[in-house]
Design brief:
Layout: E1 2-4, H1 5-8, E2 15-19, E3 22-23, E4 29-34, E5 37-38, H2 46-55, E6 60-64, E7 81-82, E8 94-96, E9 108-112, E10 116-118, E11 124-126, E12 129-130
């Protein structure tokens, strides 16, 4: 069953990052929590991380998975999120409620103030600025 997250979470809309289950104010990296509950990493990728980081006031971000910032066994706020990456909030995305998240499968982010991307020619772009230095990009 697919539905819009906003339908399910109309009155809350809070996001925070936690490290080892501790709230870290003004953090730029950690496990993602919405309305005090962790987000499952099923389907979590750069598009979702970008939206989560935008919610936190950052320009972009990279995803992490498998509860990288501390094991989480709590019930999840949402799983199998579907975003285009252009949303301003994860609450604008849709989720598939049929997937069950297992303990330790929490989504996380490493946010930055600069959106980083690679254009079609292979040049590294930092927030609409082309960098002419040589960079080695790896998939980690």
């Amino acid at each position: 069953t697919n539905f819009n997250v906003t339908d399910r979470y109309q009155s809350y809309h809070s996001i925070e990052l936690r490290n080892k289950n501790e709230i870290v104010p003004d953090a730029s990296e950690g496990n993602v929590y919405l309305d005090g509950k962790p987000v499952c990493h099923h389907g979590w990728d750069k598009k979702f991380a970008r939206v989560a980081c935008k919610m936190l006031g950052f320009g972009g971000g990279e995803p992490t998975s498998s509860s990288q910032y501390g094991r989480v066994d709590d019930d999840v706020a949402m799983d199998d999120i579907r975003c285009s990456g252009d949303e301003s909030s994860l609450y604008e995305c849709t989720i598939n409620s049929g997937y069950e998240c297992v303990p330790g499968a929490t989504a996380g982010v490493v946010c930055s103030h600069t959106e980083v991307s690679v254009d079609l020619s292979g040049m590294l772009r930092l927030a609409d600025k082309v960098e002419t230095e040589n960079y080695c990009l790896t998939d980690s």
